[in-house]
Every structure is written in C-alpha cells, then in structure tokens.
Design goal:
By secondary structure, the chain is α+β, with helices and mostly antiparallel strands. 36% of the residues lie in helices and 25% in strands. The protein contains 19 helices and 21 strands. It is globular, with a radius of gyration of 23 Å. The chain binds adenosine-5'-diphosphate and magnesium ion.
C-alpha cells in the first residue's frame, strides 16, 4: 500500500508545531497579497471587503511523474474529441434522447440549439476552454499485466465555465515560493522530495488569455457599421464570489499590447439590457459609460452552467448569444457535450473511432485507457443490470451515482445510492449514470480550508486545461484551427469526504510533488 510505503511524507521535521505555524502564516500572507481568495456572499460595505482564503494544501502532494506527463499529453486528443462531439448534433440527440424529453435543462439547451440551427449558424468558429479531471487509480494485479500500478482515470470532462485556472496558478507559485524560502527544508536524512525540480509550474492564466486573444483575432474586424471596435464579453453570475478566478483573465486581456477589451456582464438580466443582436447577426454590447456599442468577438461563458439560470430571461439570453455571429466559448452543443451521459456514451464500442477519424489506433487506446467503467441506468440490458447494482446495499458501495444535474454537488455516493433511488421517480433514473469509484492511493498532507485544518489521509485530483478553436466543416465535423494543452490545476481533499467542492471548503488547491515511484 502506498501510504505504508511513504510513511515519511510529509517529512516529520516539517510537521513540528513551529514549522506548521510559520508555514500557515506565510501561506495566509501569500493568499491575501495575491488574491487567492473567495468572496463571502455580497456583504461588502464601504470600508470592507469580505473574503476568505481559498483552501490550500500546506505541502505539495506526491504524484507520479509519468502519470502527470501522460495526462498532459492526452489533452490535445481530448480537445479534438470534444470538438468533434460538439459538431455532431445527430449523435448528441441520440445519446441524450431520453434527457431531451424528461430533463428540463438538457431540453432547454437543446431548444436553444434548434433555434440557432433553424436561423442558420452564422459563425463557423467555436471555442472550447476545457478541463479534463483525473484521479489516480490503483490497478489490481491482472494476468495480462502482473505489475500493480497506478493509472489515471478520468473523473469528468468539463466543457463549460471551467474554473480554477487562476487559483491553481497562484497556489502553484506559492508552493514554489515556500520552497525557495527554505520553509520546506529538512535535515539531509531522510531524503526530502520537495525541491524545485519536483514541482511543475503552470501558466494557466496566460494560456487562457492567449487562447481568448487568438479567438478574438480570428473573429477579425467589426462586420457591422454600427460598431467601430470588437471586444470579448464575459457573461458572469450576479453576486459572484469567484471573481479572483475570473478577473485575472480580463486583466490579462486588457494588458496585452494593444489591449483586448474584455467586459463582464451579469447573466441574464444585465446581459439582455446591454446587448442587442444586429439584423445581420452581430452581437452588440453597450458598455457602461459609453454610447458606442462594441461588437462581441467572443462570448466567454462564465455563467449559464446551472439549470436554475435558465428561466425565461436566461433562455432569451442564450438564444441571443447562440444565434449571433460571436464565437461562443462554448456553444450550447459544446456545453451539452460535457454532460455525464455523453462521457458514459463515449465508452461504447466504436464511439471513439467515430470521432477520432484521423487517429492512429494508439490514441484511441490511450484515451480509452483513462475511462473508468460507467453504466447507464436505463432499460437496456446493461442499464437493468446497473440498476440492480445500484439498488443493493451490498453492491452500491462500489459506485457513485451522477444525476444529470450539472454545476457540481449533485452526486450520490456509495451506500447512499439505494435510498436515493428509492425516493426518486423511476422515470428519471434513465437520465443518470452509475460510475465505478476510482480508488486512489491514500497519501498524507496537511490542508488548510474553511472547514479547518486537516492533517492526515488525502486524495488528489489533477485537472488538465485544454484550449481549442475549431471550424464547422461543411459536410459535418470539426476542423481544428488551434489546439493546445493549457496548464493544469491540482486539488486535494481529505480522504474522508467524497466531494471536491472548493466553495464548501473540502477541495484545496495544491501542487503535485512529482516522484518517479509512488508505490
Ligand atoms: P461535478 O464536478 O459536476 O459535481 P464530478 O464528476 O466531478 O461532478 O464529481 C464530483 C467529485 O466527486 C469529484 O471531484 C470527485 O472528488 C468525486 N468523484 C466523482 N466521480 C468519482 C469516481 N468515479 N470515483 C471517485 N470519486 C469520484
Ligand atoms: Mg467536477
């Protein structure tokens, strides 16, 4: 067991009270001065800003170098895969068939797509800022591969409003800073794995800024005489508590030479009040304090990922965006591609081959190798079998149930599944997926978060960011214009909780401490 083989991490000398106090204080100061914060409600007054530090690990958490590199190398193929999925509405309609009838959110998004399709999509380019999340899984020893090993298994693939890029970068530079100051230094024995070359860096902020700037440039000059300039528009949720993650992307765009204007607008009410769609399809935004509209080059969605945001106004706003000439990041089809039902369907026989046409067999196998078993809960043969697994308390412990709701916090874990299903209307079960639990090695760390200090067993999740711009092909499909692996985020939680929620204080930003051999 890995926890037994690495009992000396974090090194004992670092766990002394003195050292922990010094680290705690250094971390809090770093977080305050670098905006590693999350706002507390909408309670600012004239003199005070209410915020708390985002959860962070005190030490980097061990992670195998080879698996880290593997996840990074997979990202461009994953980008291409999801671009292709987002351009295949026939396949999406088939996969989401039941949900398009009985799940209000899927139905709402699909109706936006149909309206835009009927009007005729006038922007051939689409953008994706994606994040593929993985956990380490301890493979059982098999006859085929007798070496016990650690594989990366995908938890989920995010296509909409992917957050955490900024927080990840700030905490990453913090761990590097703490290394440089000597606060992680221990006596020469036993060997201490924390050294600069073991801690990777990530430039997620500048990578996302670069990708948005590339899409902005690809849009070109204004198409209508009504505007003299173009700008990126970022629809955001009102009373936003996560501005520290979003704002640095705007600042990065404005700081370019020449500056790329980026405006944020509350979705949907202010968005509806401040935008119009020109007759020729351009999306025009009227910035506050200006009488001149700007033409929106890219609609970068940091809102609209939650079912609750899609009331009448929300729907009107989504239709306005989708039917416009702006490049969408993402389109509604791109958003639907991130539904868990799609992730489950991609594991079906021959499905990856459908989308990764130009691929050698190797890349299909590499992607498939990251899938954890997922089952539908529908009335197919496998679906009925999965229902049996989920309803019996003796078997349910191996699974997590993922209801169709997106936006986080809706999963039902292990022993809670049978009772949850008992209470839920059976007609909805078919919209959900049952996923085998990934079983990561138990490592140790100290976490600082809103739920207090945790010293003990931890579990990490590696998220790889990807940016992609593609062009709708005439006969169907996606022609890739830009495709990049764009950095990573690394989050760690106590092994006693299932959820990785950063807002609730369970998930803490972290840096992997790369080691050659974890087991
Ligand atoms: P969402 O972020 O949309 O709520 P996720 O699929 O990312 O949904 O699940 C939330 C959290 O639950 C993950 O961050 C992870 O900690 C845990 N989780 C999800 N699926 C699994 C799994 N198969 N095995 C172990 N943990 C999982
Ligand atoms: Mg998630």
């Amino acid at each position: 067991m890995s926890s037994a083989s690495k009992p000396d991490y974090p090194p004992l000398a670092l766990l002394s009270d003195d050292r922990l106090v010094a680290l705690h204080s250094a971390i809090r100061d770093w977080q305050l001065t670098h905006g590693s914060l999350i706002k507390i409600g909408n309670w600012d007054d004239e003199d005070n800003i209410r915020a708390r530090p985002i959860g962070t690990s005190i030490f980097p958490t061990l992670f195998p170098r080879s698996r880290f590199e593997e996840a990074r190398q997979l990202q461009k193929d994953y980008n291409e895969l999801y671009a292709a999925v987002a351009e295949d509405d026939t396949w999406l309609a088939e996969v989401l068939r039941d949900m398009l009838v009985s799940d209000p959110f899927a139905k709402a998004l699909w109706s936006v797509h149909l309206k835009a399709k009927e009007a005729g999509y006038i922007q051939p380019l689409t953008m994706g800022i994606f994040r593929s999340d993985y956990m380490l899984h301890q493979q059982p020893v098999s006859a085929i591969d007798p070496s016990p090993g650690l594989a990366i298994k995908q938890v989920e693939f995010n296509t909409m409003s992917c957050a955490g890029g900024t927080h990840a970068s700030i905490v990453n530079t913090m761990h590097h800073h703490l290394t440089a100051t000597g606060l992680y230094t221990t006596p020469p024995t036993p060997p201490n794995p924390i050294h600069p070359s073991a801690l990777p860096t990530t430039s997620t902020i500048s990578n996302l800024v670069f990708a948005l700037a590339t899409a902005h440039a690809a849009y070109g000059p204004p198409k209508t005489a009504l505007a003299t300039a173009t700008a990126i528009l970022m629809p955001v949720q009102p009373f936003n508590i996560n501005i520290c993650d979003e704002r640095p992307l705007e600042y990065g765009l404005w700081a370019r030479a020449p500056p790329i204007p980026c405006h944020r607008v509350d979705f949907p009410t202010d968005f509806l009040a401040r935008t119009t769609r020109a007759e020729t399809g351009e999306l025009l935004f009227y910035p506050p304090h200006s009488t001149q509209p700007v033409e929106v080059s890219v609609a970068y969605m940091r809102a609209g990922y939650d079912a609750g945001e899609h009331d009448e106004e929300g729907m009107e706003a989504r239709v306005r965006i989708e039917t416009s000439r702006a490049i969408k990041c993402p389109s509604v089809l791109g958003q639907l591609a991130g539904f868990k039902k799609v992730q489950q369907a991609l594991a079906g026989a021959g499905v990856l081959e459908r989308f990764l046409l130009s691929g050698n067999k190797g890349r299909v196998e590499r992607i498939r190798g990251t899938f954890a078993p997922m089952y539908p809960l529908d009335e197919t043969e496998v679906g009925l079998w999965a229902r049996g697994q989920a309803r019996r308390i003796e078997t349910a412990g191996r699974y997590v149930l993922k209801p169709s709701l997106e936006g986080g916090g809706h999963n039902v874990y292990r022993g809670d599944i049978p009772e949850f299903l008992e209470r839920a209307p059976e007609a909805e079960w078919r919209n959900w997926v049952l996923m085998e639990m990934i079983e990561p090695p138990k490592l140790r760390n100290v976490l600082l978060s809103a739920v207090g200090v945790h010293e003990g067993g931890v579990v990490s999740e590696l998220g790889i960011f990807g940016t992609c711009i593609w062009k709708k092909r005439k006969g169907g499909g996606a022609e890739i214009v830009e495709n990049k692996q764009a950095g990573w985020s690394f989050k760690t939680k106590a092994d006693s909780v299932d959820e990785m929620s950063v807002v609730k204080g369970y998930g803490c930003f972290d840096t992997p401490c790369l080691v050659e051999d974890l087991l």
